[in-house]
Protein: Putative methyltransferase
Organism: Ilumatobacter coccineus
Amino acid sequence: MLTIRFDRLGLQPGHRVLDVGAGFGRHVFECARRGADVVALDYAEDEVVETRATLGAMVDAGEIDIERFKGVLRGDATRLPFDDDSFDIVITSEVLEHIQDDVAAIAEMFRVLKPGGMFAATVPAWGPEKINWMLSDEYHAPKSVGGHVRIYSKTELSAKLRSAGLDVRGTHRAHALHSPYWWLKCAVGPRNDDHPLVAKYRKFLEWDIVEQPTSTKIAEKVLSPALGKSIVFYAHKPASASADSAAA
């Protein structure tokens, strides 16, 4: 299930792509399939191990070229272990809402992005996320299932991206059918995965991801502008940014 639209990033074979907070690697896998050279970074060790194993299996199965697999490592988004201007594209999906110092993380992603490069970030959209917080304190407690420390408005994150030096080029909402699932989970308890209604809705979402029927595609397109659980930001690092940073 992809949240970012890679055609809006101009992703090309051979591009160097960094996924900050890659999780279990869903966006990294797609970038590799498209011929990009991928590096995945995450703070959670178990997710790093699984992503590395999955990429290795994809290489073994011939789904991606081993040359595309540049590394999967554990690291801190506020202290990225890469040189300035290292990547053509930097993405981060459902990560910034977990980080206390999100400004430092954005600055680091800007630093390692090449001048002229593209950036994409996804975070929970304000409306659906606000309902989750209202329904469950456990959902957003720092050590909880969600572990979210803030709810972004579109204005706030746009301002933080621009303050870092990025040129924000557009946004869209995604995953409308996932918002009711999380409202339901929060209503019955975010750890209560065995609740009959939660289990039934999860099966529906899994079916939708696998089968991708026309009916739910239409529903997503119609409902996402209002109910989309995630909002995606696309931005560009100006070609003059590196020189400006050096001068500063």
Summary: Confidence is low (pLDDT under 50) at residues 243-248. The CA atoms of residues 162 and 220 lie 29 Å apart.
